[in-house]
Amino acid sequence: MSVSALRSKGGLADALGRLELRFGARFSRGAELRRQHANTVNWLPNEPADAVVFVETTEEVAELVRICAEHRVPVVPFGTGTGLEGHVNAPLGGVSVDLSRMNNVIAVRPEDLDCTVEAGVTRRQLNDYLRDQGLFFPIDPGADASLGGMAATRASGTNAVRYGTMRDSVVNLTAVMADGTIIHTARRARKSSAGYDLTRLLVGSEGTLGIITEVTLRLSGIPEAIAAGVCAFRSVEDACNATILTIQSGIPIARIELLDALMVRATNDFAGLGLPATPHLFVEFHGSAASVEEQARQFGEIAAAFGGGSFQSATRPEDRTKLWQARHDAYFAAKGLRPGASVIATDACVPISRLAECVAETQADIAETGLIAPIVGHVGDGNFHVQMMVDTANPHEVELAEHFLGRLAKRAISMDGTCTGEHGVGQGKRKYLALEHGPALGVMRSIKAALDPLGILNPGKVLPE
Amino acid sequence: MSVSALRSKGGLADALGRLELRFGARFSRGAELRRQHANTVNWLPNEPADAVVFVETTEEVAELVRICAEHRVPVVPFGTGTGLEGHVNAPLGGVSVDLSRMNNVIAVRPEDLDCTVEAGVTRRQLNDYLRDQGLFFPIDPGADASLGGMAATRASGTNAVRYGTMRDSVVNLTAVMADGTIIHTARRARKSSAGYDLTRLLVGSEGTLGIITEVTLRLSGIPEAIAAGVCAFRSVEDACNATILTIQSGIPIARIELLDALMVRATNDFAGLGLPATPHLFVEFHGSAASVEEQARQFGEIAAAFGGGSFQSATRPEDRTKLWQARHDAYFAAKGLRPGASVIATDACVPISRLAECVAETQADIAETGLIAPIVGHVGDGNFHVQMMVDTANPHEVELAEHFLGRLAKRAISMDGTCTGEHGVGQGKRKYLALEHGPALGVMRSIKAALDPLGILNPGKVLPE
């Protein structure tokens, strides 16, 4: 159901007029601001909202949503704008709700290993805040995203193999529903069997069922000891198989990241790591000093069994920081492989038993297509990324890349995996949901229709037409 | 909305006639069978369905649901009937769908640490099946429940502090929705951001949104080393505070169970453990030999700091089995405290920082009420059980116990906890959901109305009228 079809004549102008009166200088129709609040990160078109409102409280979000609902005007939540699938675009216009000023840490409860933050707090801001208390929040997507946005897209990152994803880390959400009702999805007990799991329903719903305004998160203690290291392999298959055995052996590894040979070359150039130009695993172990030593030894034995080079672990913080900074800068490093081209980052995730096969087929596909596209991945979860370097002004290249994306999604789904492990659906992956979910897609549609009957919450995202 | 109000005249008889034709000897209207398929475990009334059908495939469940939907007849799923809150009662009549014959282990995939089972497979059956492969499924509610039922009630147990609950352990569900549609809620990747989390929506929905017919579960490797032990404390507060510090210290403890003095006395009598009659923690550590030794040492230091008695760990399997059998038999042991009385088991769960306070207030309440009611709990999660010994033929006692239950639920909720950590809502705890969830309850009602518009799926459960 299209919002515009429902919108009463003059509804948009009336709504914007009321919002301007209510929010004053925090309401803007400036073209450049609107452009910045729509998709700017890849080849998806930039589709700006009609106005941007900077909200400061949950009650303000509720007020805004009630006004928009009355006039059938779309509401598109905005955190940091770093989503990779066009999540912040406004294809039907409407209002972009910028939550970045809701950036207060409301409470940290070390005794319960949890905290409550406003949706606009970013993951780095939270970790800076927590450090003195010996706590950290482990989930680390590439960007310094807002925690509300990370909850909305069910984000994860390099630590997920040990600490889980946003699905596992969110204890409770405050959210504004499509009629302006403010709800709390749960209380703070570590577990509950009291009713439907609205927390998990909103996590990953990408602003299409409600707007997340506050997030209560599980925290972890900073480990007593941390060791990190790199290990070279002859092939991606060997690296994947070493990963599989590491997971199967129950080693509680904190991070295990694959970089293919091309990605290692790019990273060498960008970050001066000086690694041999073969596939590598970057790993990290957390625990007591004795446990970390034991894990590193066990991993070293497994790596050696698959022809891995000698594994040396770095325990000095500055060495570890250099390593992981290089890993997190993969996006920028990849850009160096083809200056001037755009990076189109995508992800897929398969059962770990199919990982080596899926990565190998994907590499063959890349070679056949002639794309420059390094692979990097959170392979402990069966999740990997392809970063395509594309001249988006060249329609032939764009078409090649689009077809490649389709084959990758279908390959992952055919292996009982998913078209996205952590980036989300947004606009970019809607077309694969029917294949991935079959009749379950109808259930998702029923939920959307029940909770947002006017279709005003982030229309054009997640569910295909 | 009441199903009976919707039911067309003669609808029930027509539906039962069609089901009898279709299922033959697997359809029964026998009074004793119907009674056994309704609540038999506590003081809640026994409210039988009008018929019982033994299904053998997902397609049969779909066929049954379609017939019942056509005639507006309630459908009540039945696994082992061990739910503690009247989950299997049929207050509006209808059909009890017995899934116990759907007891095939469909696939075990050691390489992915997962398995797929039919809903009627019980947790012990699965663990017997897995043992030769070095794998286990850690979630262990007291009863040998069916895995479909455990998913439906979001069950957990003694291992949840380390391994999570059914919320964390279910990868994918096959379910029959209210119109007979068969869905798969997800694929088998360890994580996904592709659409709404229908898996978590059905986990804990207690058969009110769909009937779970197959479950894909995460498995764990049997640890290389296991050590268990007991530790006596002077007070419940000391034991709780030792628990809190153990969790905060990040010790990856596998089990940490509190037994209050009365429960220890009952367990001594029942299982001959010969422990001093003071509060105890029963604990277990999993990991490598070195890790287990380190965890046990660290726990011993923490326990000593709170006046805990000397902690001795048992590594011999037979000693551990005796210990945990005694813990699992708490229900039967409690019965010995007042022969002839019924055991009314309830549970609550609070943030761990409030645990000592919540247990202490609850003990004071028990003393004041004059109930015989030992406490036992999964305290690492802030979750504890009260087992009331009640003469259910005595209305005064029943009233006392009911008021006590209400105070316990409200106490837990007032401490930012939940009226049930793992037993579920069923019929017994519906009355507390408005207090616990506030406006979020309206969202749950919208979802129920959208997914089961005729109200035929397990009516009278979870959501209050």
Q: Which CATH architecture of the largest domain in chain A?
A: 2-Layer Sandwich
Q: What CATH first level of the largest domain in chain A would be assigned?
A: Alpha Beta
CATH topology-level fold name of the largest domain in chain A: Uridine Diphospho-n-acetylenolpyruvylglucosamine Reductase, domain 3
Strand tally of chain A: 18
Mean pLDDT of chain A: 94
Rg over C-alpha atoms of chain A, rounded to the nearest angstrom: 22 Å
* Widest sheet: strand ordering of chain A: 15-12-14-13-17-18-16
Helix-strand category of chain A: alpha+beta
The number of helical elements of chain A comes to 18
- Multimeric status of the protein: homodimer
Our estimate of the beta-strand percent of chain A is 15-25%
Pair of chains with the largest interface and how many residues each contributes:
A-B, 93 and 93 residues
How much helical structure, as a percent, in the residues of chain A?
A: 25-40%
Q: How does the overall form of chain A come out from the CA principal axes?
A: globular
- Biggest β-sheet strands, sense, barrel of chain A: 7 strands, antiparallel
Provide the number of structural domains of chain A: 4
Low-confidence stretches of chain A: none
The N- and C-terminal alpha carbons of chain A lie at a distance of 8 Å
EC number (chains A, B): 1.1.2.4
Domain FAD-binding PCMH-type (chains A, B): 45-222
InterPro entries (chains A, B): FAD-bd_oxidored_4_C, FAD-bd_PCMH, FAD-bd_PCMH-like_sf, FAD-bd_PCMH_sub2, FAD-linked_Oxase-like_C, Oxid_FAD_bind_N, Vanillyl_alc_oxidase_C-sub2
Cofactor (chains A, B): FAD
